[in-house]
Amino acid sequence: MFDTLTDSFKNAIGKIRFHDDDKALKKATAELKKSLLKADVHHKVVKELIAAVELDTKKNGIGKEQFLKALQAELTRLLTIQGAPKGFTFASNPPTVVLMIGLQGSGKTTTTGKLAYFLKEQKKKKVLVVAADLQRLAAVEQLRQIVSNIGVDLVADETMTPVQIVKQGLQKAKKELYDVVLIDTAGRLAIDDELMSELKEVKEAADPDELFYVADAMTGQDAVRTAQTFKEKIGISGVVLSKFDGDSKGGVALGLTEQVGAPLRFIGAGEKMPDLEQFIPERIVSRLMGAGDVESLAEKAAAAIDPKEAKKFSQKIKKGQFNFNDFLAQMEQMKKLGSMKSIMGMIPGMGNLAKQIGDMDLENSDEIKAIKAMISSMTPKERENPDLLNNMRKRRIATGAGLDQMQVNRVLKQFKNAAIMAKKLSGKGGMKQMQDLMHQMQGGGFPGMRR
Ligand SMILES: Nc1nc2c(ncn2[C@@H]2O[C@H](COP(=O)(O)OP(=O)(O)O)[C@@H](O)[C@H]2O)c(=O)[nH]1
Ligand SMILES: [Mg+2]
Q1: What are the tens digits of pLDDT across the range 339-373?
Q2: CB 126 within 8 A of CB 179
Q3: Which residues are CB-contacts of 440 (< 8 A; sequence separation ≥ 6)?
Q4: Which residue has a Cα nearest atom 10 of ligand 1?
Q5: Which of 112, 134, 242 to mutate to test the pocket of ligand 1 (most atoms within 8 A of CB)?
Q6: Superfamily grouping for domain 3-79
Q7: For residue 181, what is the DSSP state?
Q8: How do residues 90-99 score in pLDDT, each as one tens digit?
Q9: Residue 99 phi/psi, 5° resolution?
Q10: Which of 179, 325, 410, 446 pairs with 199 at a CA distance of 20 to 30 A?
Q11: Pick among 1.10.260.30, 2.40.340.10, 3.40.50.620, 1.10.287.630: CATH of 299-444
Q12: Residue 68, SS3 per DSSP
């Protein structure tokens, strides 16, 4: 998610090799400045950051370690507003009411769905979504589809005004003890006085704990400017940066909090529901410095994976009994974790691999599609026991899956190898082997993973 920035920091840090080398520090900060500007970080923010890092480093005696620490501290400071909430925070008196606002097409409705999904799956909360965008007919329908896919309740009534529907939603939430109410509103331009005054009325009726401004990362510094305007006119308590997957430079995220004076709370990086990350400064900085974000990954995994199932699964792996049903079940769980790229980006040292994988859609890759087609052509017994597959059965499966027998053989071999590898990795020293494997993949490319 932050490939470009992470690379810049690594390069800059690499410039400092010796202690007390003023020249090296100059080189490092010059490099940092250049790449931050190239990544679209606002020039004022860059200037401040560089000056602070330089001062900090000098104070502690120039060296790689000192530079690293200074950079880390200054980045954390840049991304933090003292006393402001981070990620999602719950009101002391439920329900926590969140009003989603922003320009037309910025990603409000999608983000509302993503937040609902995040709260339901990761935080195990009872979520109610309110459709207060009644400007466009299709808007309610879009929201209805999203919430029904993720299994969250919706309050919608096209014949009501936004204020009426908000009141009805809040009543329902209080009566039925919902934890969180997410209100999706119509997109509007700050220059449209009529819509702005409607939004003020909605805000008054909702009396929200949070006002999330959804900003489109692809609009660059415009995202910052519009957030500033909404902050002045309506008031916002946080920003969600959407479509971050389309903004390869990523610099806007770095300056936004300080520029707007409201914390960046979430980043949306993809069209699917799991593609939402909490923006927690310390964790993001760790990721920016190439150290990964193990905490977020662990949280995601803990929420997606049923501990009982996980235990059963790991025992199977240890015995080398991994079968096709397990494979399908694992694919389902992977889906809940979000894109492969975002998962990789959270593992320390895996940044490069994440870049290589790019936007690969694991689920829809040719390999996975072939395996899925094969599995659907198998009998339940065959799915349970891959060893049953003799030549006759393989031929039948190949015909059923629309593959030739060589392809079937290749996939089966890969599957067996994967099971053997998993068994090995689950033993002692498995983590070390995993890392070696990853290094090999980084060097030589990963044969199965072509986009
Ligand atoms: N690639 C990508 N597309 C997104 C993201 N968030 C929203 N979109 C897309 O942006 C378009 C507008 O989103 P929508 O939620 O309807 O915006 P709204 O008008 O503010 O409610 C839709 O096509 C979404 O699928 C994101 O994080 N990444
Ligand atoms: Mg919408």
Answers
A1: 666 776 676 666 666 666 665 666 677 777 888 88
A2: yes
A3: none
A4: 107
A5: 242
A6: SRP54, nucleotide-binding domain (1.20.120.140)
A7: E
A8: 999 999 999 9
A9: -100, 125
A10: 179
A11: 1.10.260.30
A12: helix
